[in-house]
Amino acid sequence: MKQQTLLFPHGELSGSEVMVTILEDNRRRLKRAVGGLDDDALYWQPDPQSNSIGVTLWHMGRLLDVFLTQLVKGEPAENEQWFSQGWAERTGYDPRGIGRSGWGSLNDYTAAEVAQIPRLAVGQLLEHLDQVYDGVRTFIESTTMKDLTAAAPSFEGQFTKYQVLSMALLDNVRHLGEIYLLKSLRERAN
Hints:
Elements: H1 15-34, H2 39-42, H3 53-72, H4 81-84, H5 87-91, H6 111-115, H7 122-142, H8 145-148, H9 161-189
Helix pairs in contact: 1-7, 1-9, 3-7, 3-9
């Protein structure tokens, strides 16, 4: 008999189930890590060249949104949660054309471009992340493994949709560690 773990109580998981498990674990940990932070804590920077927790949270949602919409589904930027849920309109911030590949996801932004990212409250940042995470989960759960393992319409077809989405998801996990570090550094500085 196989030994069961608490993380996977139902035995073996498919690739898409593992992806959803990681997504939901990251969401839960993010909410616990940043829930209740005030604006001072959210936008504190250890030095002027580093990102704050707020900017990092915004980046996490944007990158996963861009990767799912444009790079996995092959849809236009207008279909991203940032636009379809009205965030661009409410904040007056349209990130298209900025940074790496024009994705507007913080990668390769200048310091001046980072300063233009809207300073959302923690509740707003988590709301946006929830919308993105919900969209990713819905996509994963409604897509067959055969389709997930097909070539993505991005990166000249050298990666599968599963691989491209995994890149962004693992980037989110990595940034959660960054958020823990930023919180710790701020606590030590005060």
